[in-house]
Amino acid sequence: MAVSDVKVLGSWPSPFVMRPRIALHVKSVNYEYIEEILLESKSELLLKSNPVFKKVPVLLHGDKPICESLIIVQYIDEVWSSGPSILPSDPYERANSRFWAAYIDEMWFPALRGVLVAESEDAKMAAIAQVKEGLVLLEEAFGKLSQGKPFFGGDQIGYLDIALGSLLVCLQVIEKFSEMKLLTEARTRCLLEWAHRFSSHVAVKDVMPEADKFAEFAVKLRAKILKARATPE
Amino acid sequence: MAVSDVKVLGSWPSPFVMRPRIALHVKSVNYEYIEEILLESKSELLLKSNPVFKKVPVLLHGDKPICESLIIVQYIDEVWSSGPSILPSDPYERANSRFWAAYIDEMWFPALRGVLVAESEDAKMAAIAQVKEGLVLLEEAFGKLSQGKPFFGGDQIGYLDIALGSLLVCLQVIEKFSEMKLLTEARTRCLLEWAHRFSSHVAVKDVMPEADKFAEFAVKLRAKILKARATPE
């Protein structure tokens, strides 16, 4: 399939867009990246490609749209054998990777987002406590899954590295806003070292948003969410 | 592996528990079913097996716990070849099945649950509208994915059949409470016929809760949720 037959519809401030991009880099697949402007109107191409969720990222493989970041990562892993496997080959390890990725998206990320959009100090501190608790769980999971190797996926970046690593920039912004270190040497040393390795990995570093620029976007996003809350339809 | 090496921790009123059970039936795998009493305290075995979410279902395969209903279904499909494949073999069809299953769990089921726990007529009607809209989307998806065959999975019950079919009993209860037919001949004929086929399938019928008994449970669940809302921690 020609280069232009693989496209990613994305938007730079969406951490979820990093996921398919990193997976394509791991597989050495060339693709065209098409930038959507978030917080503004959505393009015809996005609305046509993902009419149900109307969200980035979307992978276009020829005329076939694939939606939802982790579903796209699995698709990329199944279609391209031009690089290391992203999901482990063992079904139990695969189930564990999927489990922790589900934990991250369903529990941990909502807590992280909760810190950003908290309207009271109590709500903010409760969300921060959840984020910290989650990091301790993920530190334990890293110990079990990496088995002394550099990544959750072992020697290579795998599914769970991509799932969690794509959200590191959000964690940095929350640390900045809350003036608090959440990923610490004392509590989560392995994860802290992993975060440095992940962020400087060749498949990752060029798609990781610059932290200050991302923080500016987060301020705008927060204002938009709080405004929407104050003026329900 | 001996029969007793496969166990399902479940609870009859949890529609999600049906998912691994149906998958095991499709694969003709014998298993021990261990009933948890929901709305009461949780067993040591459940807390030990799923310390993160503390929820049923859990599959115990030997000493390995696998959690989250759809992750378990994928695990069963990957481990046992003693029956038809549950996920399609084509990566794009697999991505589509995963996409609609994600839609069901993230958007459609929360709307269905929203009808049950709505505290105003407006909130209830808004949730019912979302449920109906979702059924129309799923009717369209059925047309595309089943390609004229009896199930989403083609000739056999597949991943999406299990994901949606396990929630049919919830839909029936909501129809009963709202005194409104939601799965109708006029709007969703294919899905209505599919629901009959699915519910009477040999892998399904013995694990589908009896509607009246399930409705009684739903009344208790509703009371518990509304009480928890009224008395926050």
What is the strand and helix layout of this fold?
The structure is a homodimer of 233-residue chains.
Chain A: E1 6-10, H1 15-26, E2 32-35, H2 44-49, E3 58-61, E4 64-67, H3 69-79, H4 91-117, H5 121-146, H6 159-165, H7 168-178, H8 185-199, H9 211-230
Parallel strand pairs in A: 1-2
Antiparallel strand pairs in A: 1-3, 3-4
Helix pairs in contact in A: 1-3, 4-5, 4-6, 4-7, 5-8, 7-9
Please give a structural write-up.
The structure is a homodimer of 233-residue chains. Chain A has two domains: 3-79, Glutaredoxin (3-Layer(aba) Sandwich), CATH 3.40.30; 91-199, Glutathione S-transferase Yfyf (Class Pi), Chain A, domain 2, CATH 1.20.1050.10. Chain A is 58% helix and 7% strand. The first copy, chain A, has nine helices and four strands. In chain A, a hairpin with a 2-residue loop joins strand 3 and strand 4. In chain A, helix 4 (91-117) packs antiparallel against helix 5 (121-146) and helix 4 (91-117) runs parallel beside helix 6. Chain A binds chain B through residues 52-53, 61, 64, 66-68, 71-72, 74-75, 78-79, 91-92, 94-95, 98-99, 102-103, 107, 137, and chain B through 52-53, 61, 64, 66-68, 71-72, 74-75, 78-79, 91-92, 94-95, 98-99, 102-103, 107, 137. Chains A, B: GO terms for molecular function: glutathione transferase activity.
